[in-house]
Design brief:
By secondary structure, the chain is an alpha/beta fold. Helix content is 51%, strand content 13%. It contains 9 helices and 5 strands. It has helices at 15-28, 45-48, 56-64, 68-87, 99-109, 114-120, 137-143, 157-178, 189-199; strands at residues 3-9, 33-36, 93-97, 129-134, 181-184. A 5-stranded parallel beta sheet has the order 2-3-1-4-5, with helices on both faces. Helix 1 (15-28) crosses helix 9. The longest helix is centred in the last third of the chain and has 22 residues, at 157-178. The chain is globular and about 45 Å long. It starts with a strand and ends in a 7-residue tail after the last helix. The model has no long low-confidence stretch (mean pLDDT 95).
């Protein structure tokens, strides 16, 4: 079974950057790595050819008309597809970008019932390690060249700040409950990469 590592955090916390960087470090060490993110189905020809969406913008248009519980089912389905695609490559390590955690927190911030949403997520296994990149909503806003309506709470920049604070509060609660390793998302990216890679529990392989 592969070691499963999640890089968690809110929008613009550096998750994608660290997933790519840690993946490169592990590959340089001869470790087979697979990355899993919510958009992977759009890049898998056998799946993408059967989807009614051509790109992310069309997905966001669809998400906009859904309510939190139905939207979460769609998003969780996409997360599960990504995990399955990653597992098909027989990796030694799977790096999860955000996993279900971000979308749970976001849908709670959108007004979804936390108990129902948590029940929806109950089938997802817990990673071997979760590193939580923490940045303030204002830092996140300063990093965003473009904001999707979804991550902005379907509002303006001020709404984005309030919405992201709510989402971060939910992630903070998950971190305390599940024992995540919390990291300063504003730290030097290379230092963060080294810290995460060193913490991955795959024994002598590292």
């Amino acid at each position: 079974m592969p070691t499963v590592v999640c890089i968690a955090g809110g929008d613009a916390s550096g998750k994608s950057t660290q997933v790519a960087a840690v993946s490169a470090v592990l590959r340089d060490r001869g470790i087979r790595v697979a990355e899993a993110g919510i958009w992977d189905a759009l890049d898998a020809p056998a799946i993408a050819s059967r989807l009614p969406f051509r790109d992310r913008d069309e997905v966001f248009d669809y998400l906009r008309v859904l309510r939190p519980l139905s939207r979460a089912l769609f998003l969780f389905h996409a997360v599960q597809v990504a995990v399955e695609l990653a597992g098909d490559t027989e990796p030694e390590v799977i790096l999860l970008n955000a996993y279900w955690y971000k979308y749970f927190a976001t849908e709670v911030a959108h007004g979804g019932d936390a108990t129902a949403l948590r029940a929806y997520a109950s089938g997802f296994p817990e990673p071997d390690l979760t590193c939580y990149l923490k940045v303030s909503p204002r830092t996140a806003l300063s990093r965003k060249l473009e904001r999707s309506d979804y991550e902005s709470g379907y509002g303006d920049a001020d709404t984005f700040l309030r919405f992201q604070q709510h989402s971060q509060t939910v992630l903070d609660g998950l971190s305390r409950e599940l024992g995540w390793r919390e990291l300063d998302g504003t730290a030097d990216p290379n230092t963060l990469t080294a810290t995460i890679a060193a913490a991955i529990p795959i024994g002598a392989a590292l």
